[in-house]
Amino acid sequence: MRFFVEPSPSGAWFVKLDGHDAPISRHDSEEEAIERRDAYARGAARIDGELTELRDGTRVRVRPIRAEDKPRLLEAFDRLGAGSRYRRFLGHKKELSVDELASLTEVDHHDHEALAAVRPETGEGLGVARFVRLPERRHVAEAAVTVIDDWQGRGVGGLLLRRLAERAREEGIREFDASLLTDNRAMLALFRRLGALRVVRSGPVQEIQVSLPLGEPCMDEALRAAARGDLTTA
Fold it and tell me: Is residue 155 part of a domain?
């Protein structure tokens, strides 16, 4: 990855990733922008996380997302097809703004957790799973999983959801809420195998609630379902 700094029309400074029109972050001074540029470069060179094997023998690393992952997230977003973007954002989405990149990567790992799957060889981002705790219902969190198109159907989504459920239980969360397009059957099946599921609102977009299992059996079933090929796009 190659990064550069350029002034914005508003007088601020952008850090940008070579080959991408959208900026990664916006800063008040050139010095601050250069500091963040260098941090992104260090983050791009750092490849770590739990090494895990998928059902086809491919290895991936899973770890908490970091603020310096903005470039990886931007590249992963560009590798989502129009259909995948529509299913994730429940609408058309052409690019991620600076504020959205910050919101998606600058998390507290308590009320907002995000886990990334990356390739061990290159650090390339493959998918992200996240939960955001509901302030009015502290035992409930909104959850979402996204996997780049080239890696869908290989078990990355199931792996990320398993790790996300484990983290949620550690933080006292007992239930996931999710909003899914009704025709997103693969993701609905993934959540259904996670635990007891209720559809609380039907329509073009379904709102579901999933009780998180206290142990591992339900998650193991989810992974077995992925291995059988029941989940084709997660």
Answer: yes
How many CB atoms are located within 10 Å of the residue 19 CB? 9
d(CA 82, CA 93): 8
C-alpha of 229 from chain center: 22
pTM exceeds 0.85: yes
Helix 30-45 and helix 70-78, axial crossing angle in degrees, nearest 10:
70
Domain count, the chain: 1
Segments forming the whole domain that contains residue 159: 54-65+107-228
End-to-end CA distance of the chain: 27
pLDDT in tens, the chain (234 residues): 899 999 998 899 999 999 998 999 999 999 999 999 999 999 999 999 999 999 899 999 999 999 999 999 999 999 999 999 999 998 899 999 999 999 999 999 999 999 999 999 999 999 999 999 999 999 999 999 999 999 999 999 999 998 999 999 999 999 999 999 988 888 888 898 888 999 999 889 999 999 998 765 444 444 444 433 333 334
Give the CATH number, domain containing residue 157: 3.40.630.30
Q: Looking at the domain assignment, is residue 88 inside a domain?
A: no
Separation of alpha carbons 110 and 138, rounded Å: 11
Letter string b/e over residues 200-213, b meaning 16 or more CB atoms within 10 A of that residue's CB: eeeeeebebbbebb
142: left (phi over 0), alpha (psi -120 to 50) or beta: beta
